[in-house]
Amino acid sequence: MRVTNVSLRPTEASNAAGRPALTPELLAATGARYSRSNEGLEAILARIDPNNLDKSVDGIFKMVDYGHASIADMTPVALFIDGISMWLAYELFRISPTAGGQESSTRYIKLDEEGLLSAEELGIPDGDAWQERMGAAFAAYREALAYWEQVALDEPERVRIPAGVNEKAAARMRRNFAFDRARYFLPVAVRTNAMLVQSARAWVSVCQHLLSHPLPEAVRCGERIREELGLSAPRLIKHARKLENTVVGLAAEQVSAQWHSGKKAQAQAFLDVMLPSGALDFAADLAFHNNRYAYIGEGLRRTAVRFGWDGIAFAEIRDLNRHRTGTKYCPLRPVGFYAAQDEHPHADHWAEVGEKASELAELRLLQNDPAYIYETLLGTQFPFEHTTTADKFLYEAELRTGTGAHYRYAKHLRDVLALWYEKFPQTKGLVLEGSAEPE
């Protein structure tokens, strides 16, 4: 595991224009002066000693509390985090709702056992047996990948390659088709890389969560994030520590997950809508909505939405979890396994590998073993819901059904859109629902 702080520097154009460049903490300190002064930026910068930036930061922070969220939020920090499990990458995005970022994709990278974190790193006691189970999962992944690659060649209509596409692009589409359907057998304990950029205050909250976590991988990541955060925001490091109330809260969440039904889910969608007061015309709200980034009217922006499924694969949860708006809820008790058998009949023994992994993970959860999550695969299903506003929901639905969308989460979002159309039929045809055509 490696965490690297990557700092920003001014562009040549910015330097040529004579624009100021500040350290992250000095940026926050300068912004903080706006609450106590109306002199403007030039007057504030004039008080900064370029030969002693620390003194300038401290001088400004004597007036205000740097621990105050609105000030610490003005300290941008970008961290690149390499060699963590797919579960931990999910967790980082889950607890970083304001972050922008990326994670290594299962669509473009073929993975194997060499990328698996060790049982010792993950705090798994019966390492040899666990390693054997993960080997069986990778064997299923390789077999499934070969199977779907052959399907793409034998049944090109399934890949839906557009007419006129050159062979290089067509080969990429066939490869993506196979990777998208084979990925369900990948263990969540396989290494991935993630990059997130957010405020130093948000990183402190991440540290508090990870340092309070029962899993050693999370604690180790929290320690390394704290070290790198100190390069950009040293005055905030005192807040980046283990918190007993977080320890208790995380333990309670695991107990709560045990009480959720372990019944196999059918990816059944649900949708709740809370309408605001006043006259509403959702069709008018979408009248000028000609792409997913375009204008949406205030009626939809004021409407609260809660949507989700009784259980979907962790592979799709990883993607849907990265939407920044609102609140996501995902109790991590396995509710079955998805193996893409609805796409095409294939060997049942692959699905059996996934079912056994999910069943063992559930058993270990009920035994109160926090490392149970590392028994799961990307096809292991969990309940998932997202609470947001209608405009953000429609953006997500348009994105996740649009060009290049993964076939499975496209289906999940189409299922929710069908429920939306039942409630608001006047919006059908105005929502830019796609067909997940390949790109």
TrEMBL record:
SUPFAM superfamilies reported in the protein's UniProt record: Thymidylate synthase-complementing protein Thy1
Record organism: Armatimonas rosea
Protein name according to UniProt: Thymidylate synthase ThyX
InterPro entries given in the database record: Thymidylate_synthase_ThyX (IPR003669), Thymidylate_synthase_ThyX_sf (IPR036098)
One Pfam assignment: Thy1
GO BP annotations listed: dTMP biosynthetic process
GO molecular function terms attached to this record: flavin adenine dinucleotide binding; thymidylate synthase (FAD) activity
Source superkingdom: Bacteria
